[in-house]
């Protein structure tokens, strides 16, 4: 009679069953991953096919009007970096398919088709973009789940808001007031630096050798396009460079006066150059001056970011407990 225990007699059989079960589970998981990957490829291909007309129009806007909307070409790269920036928290737990994501996909696709083929009043680039936005959120929700959307909603929103051109009708609501601000600011600044200047509406008259040379502050000189680029840049810098929400909001908000101030300096530069040759205030040279002023504008924005960081002292010190204590205060000296 064997002295082996019942546990020892059953162990080999149990190990064999477990060994058989593990490959089976691995095979099931591999098949499931392939199915999800195939489904994702099909959904993304259909999305690209459905919205191809919108993508082509957006690319054409960005290429044909680079000075105004060229920044939209790099917005997808920045949004992708946001996802990479949050990769550790995003991948901390596996994604979970959420079939409710089909709801915004269907609604977004239907809305886009309505804005594409419907009445002329709704055939609008930004209204079509709203359908694309809803569809992209649905795709992300479908394949990544609700938890992942805690980290994906911001990159997706950033992509959809700043990655498309804004219609002239919507732009004019802000463009006209900014034209007036730019004209008034340039007029004051030029007189402060001892350049005799008069203003009539949005036209500046720069006096040189007894002759008044007009400089029209057109819609393109309002600074609205620069403001859009600054808002996109400010949101990106705030998300990656600052920890507190009040700092982020402050940095984005400071993009408005910064863009206006730099635009006033840009117009003042064109006014000074027009005293020597009026051709300097038009054409490619006009565009070159605008691009040139983006460099100091970016440095000013970096200075604002640095100041906001210095307003908060963050010191992680080890106390008596296991957790570090965060001490925050304002710089007083």
How is the topology of this model organized?
Layout: H1 6-50, H2 52-64, H3 66-69, H4 75-85, H5 87-90, H6 102-117, H7 125-162, H8 168-192, E1 197-200, E2 203-208, E3 211-216, H9 224-241, H10 245-274, H11 283-292, H12 294-310, E4 315-318, E5 324-327
Antiparallel strand pairs: 1-2, 2-3, 4-5
* Number of H/I helices: 12
Radius of gyration: 29 Å
Largest sheet: 3 strands, antiparallel
Low-pLDDT regions: 1-12, 317-333
Order of helices and strands: HHHHHHHHEEEHHHHEE
Main sheet: strand order: 1-2-3
| Number of beta-strand segments | 5
β content, as a range?
5-15%
Structure description:
The protein is mostly helical and 333 residues long. It has two domains: 144 residues, no CATH class; 140 residues, no CATH class. The strands form two sheets. It has a three-stranded antiparallel β-sheet, with helices on one face. A hairpin with a 5-residue loop joins strand 4 and strand 5. The longest helix has 45 residues. It is globular and about 80 Å long. The N and C termini lie far apart (89 Å). The N terminus and C terminus are likely disordered.
Short description:
With 333 residues, the protein is mostly helical. Helix content is 69%, strand content 7%.
Descriptors for this entry?
333 residues; 3-stranded antiparallel beta sheet; disordered C terminus
């Amino acid at each position: 009679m064997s002295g082996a225990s019942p546990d020892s007699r059953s162990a080999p059989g149990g190990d064999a069953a477990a060994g058989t079960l593990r490959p089976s589970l691995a095979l099931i998981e591999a098949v499931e991953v392939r199915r999800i990957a195939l489904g994702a490829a099909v959904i993304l291909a259909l999305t690209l096919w459905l919205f191809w007309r919108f993508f082509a129009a957006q690319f054409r806007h960005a290429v044909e009007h680079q000075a105004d909307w060229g920044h939209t070409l790099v917005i997808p790269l920045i949004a992708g970096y946001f996802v990479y920036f949050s990769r550790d928290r995003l991948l901390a737990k596996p994604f979970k398919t959420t079939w409710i994501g089909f709801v915004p996909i269907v609604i977004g696709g239907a809305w886009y088709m309505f804005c594409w083929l419907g009445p002329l009043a709704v055939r609008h680039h930004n209204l079509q973009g709203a359908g694309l936005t809803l569809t992209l959120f649905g795709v992300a929700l479908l394949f990544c789940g609700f938890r992942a959307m805690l980290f994906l909603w911001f990159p997706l929103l950033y992509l959809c808001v700043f990655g498309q051109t804004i219609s002239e009708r919507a732009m004019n609501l802000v463009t006209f007031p900014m034209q007036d601000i730019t004209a008034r600011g340039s007029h004051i600044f030029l007189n402060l630096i001892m350049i005799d200047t008069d203003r009539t509406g949005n036209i500046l008259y720069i006096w040189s050798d007894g002759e008044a040379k007009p400089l029209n502050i057109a819609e393109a000189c309002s600074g609205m396009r620069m403001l859009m680029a600054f808002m996109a840049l400010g949101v990106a810098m705030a998300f990656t460079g600052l920890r507190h929400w009040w700092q982020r909001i402050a940095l984005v908000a400071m993009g408005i006066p910064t863009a206006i101030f730099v635009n006033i300096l840009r117009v003042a530069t064109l006014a000074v150059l027009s005293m020597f040759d009026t051709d300097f205030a038009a054409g490619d040279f006009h565009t070159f001056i605008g691009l040139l002023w983006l460099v100091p504008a970016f440095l000013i924005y970096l200075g604002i970011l640095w100041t906001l960081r210095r307003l908060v002292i963050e010191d992680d010190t080890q106390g008596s407990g296991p957790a570090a204590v965060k001490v925050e205060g304002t710089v007083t000296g």
